[in-house]
Amino acid sequence: MEASESTSELLAIRRRKLEALREAGVEPFPHAYPGVTAIAEAKAPHEGLEPGDETETRVRVAGRLHARRGQGKAAFLDLVDRSGRMQLHARADVIGKESLDALVALDLGDLLGVDGTIFKTRRGELSVKVDGWELLAKSLRPPPDKHSGLTDTETRLRHRELDLMSNDETRAVFLTRAKIVTAIRRFLDDEGFIEVETPVLQPIYGGALARPFVTHFNALDRTFYMRIATELYLKRLIVGGLERVYEIGKDFRNEGLSPKHNPEFTMLEWYEAYADWEVVAERAERLIRTVGEVVGSERFMRKWERETLAGSIAARVDGLDVLANRTLDSLQAAMRERGMEIPDEPNWASLVDYLVSKHVEPTLIEPTMLHDYPVELSPFAKRHRAYDGLVERFEAFAEGMEFCNAFSELNDPDDQRARFEEQVRHAAAGDENAPPFDHDYIYALEHGMPPTGGIGIGIDRLVMLLTGQRTIREVVLFPALK
């Protein structure tokens, strides 16, 4: 859209100010400003001051000019950094009239650093009595309106820097996200896990049922894939004897956009030798309870509910028993008997997954585990020790959204080979999400993998749950947009 004349004039005025600064010998973009204290840290020791109290405590703060009031012999200005806001009090008899005039002439959005002493105004606001200041970066564009903030969703998401600059709520979400990731690392480190990094570019993609992004590796002259999961490489590390490993990293799935899906997303996966899904479930509950305590959320404080997958469908779809209808034709017929819409799914497993997504998942508001999955839905999970045709797997849901997936890991190389072959048949029949046969993974399993439990937790979705956000794009700094 063409800029309005008023906007064009504002930009021109800021440009003229920039040139005037340079002509006056002022560097508008200096190299550094060392010794800065965060505003919240500067204020914290002095909250107990009485109105009118002054101190000799010197501070150096820096941030973006957010507001200004007054002129002539004195002025109040508001400085904002990521930790909060600080009022500045500048007087001509302290810094000189020329310096005060230059300070007041700064534009909102300019970045500046300030030296001074802490005091509390007669109105009770902690402030800095300015005795020196420096322009740190000239802002050539006006910031979003300081009263209404940035409200246009398209602009907020495409220009997250402006969203963070003007909306305290957005900044709080991403500061909380950082605390969540830090708390996860601390928890797993304390539990004896080691953090590792596995390839993002992979010659064979696997570890999930999803379509990959495809690229060309020029140096090798062959097709590579952006990973859809870290699972198979992490389990090869279990084979190698690392025993407890985790990775927090980006995965990429070539799928659509939705309130719960972004093609680039962050996953936590961990794998633990000598454990099964029950051990993983207990540790996952403790982890998320601990993280909730760190960020002040009570969302996951109580023990999670549990349901079997087949039981969850039967309870919500007129007694439909998916395990009694183990072929695509049989399950479709049972759905027709109930007057249900029959989606175009390529196989029985995909149709079961549809039933969970359509009829079960939206109803799981409180934290709930679905467990005992069919083997056809779980190509890397160990067969159930008590029930034929099932595997030892659970997925956890809350607010109608799946946020983690875990199982006792399949460590029988012959069984895993047969699962891969089945997935290859599904792919040949038209299932675009079926993973390819991974010969290197079979080679690793043939050296022996101990009993192992593993889990994947969607960091983005977990942040959504812990911060009360309804769409994934609100917890991803730069989400994919059309």
Automatic annotation (TrEMBL):
Positions of Mg(2+) 1 binding: E395, E402
Top-level EC class: ligase
Record GO terms (molecular function): ATP binding; lysine-tRNA ligase activity; magnesium ion binding; tRNA binding
EC numbers, comma separated: 6.1.1.6
Keyword line: Aminoacyl-tRNA synthetase, ATP-binding, Cytoplasm, Ligase, Magnesium, Metal-binding, Nucleotide-binding, Protein biosynthesis
Gene3D superfamilies with a match to the protein in the record: Bira Bifunctional Protein, Domain 2 (3.30.930.10), Nucleic acid-binding proteins (2.40.50.140)
Membership in a protein family: Belongs to the class-II aminoacyl-tRNA synthetase family.
A GO term from the CC aspect: cytosol
Cofactors required: Mg(2+)
Cell location: Cytoplasm
Pfam family, one: tRNA-synt_2
Quaternary structure (record): Homodimer.
Protein name: Lysine--tRNA ligase
PROSITE patterns the record matches: AA_TRNA_LIGASE_II
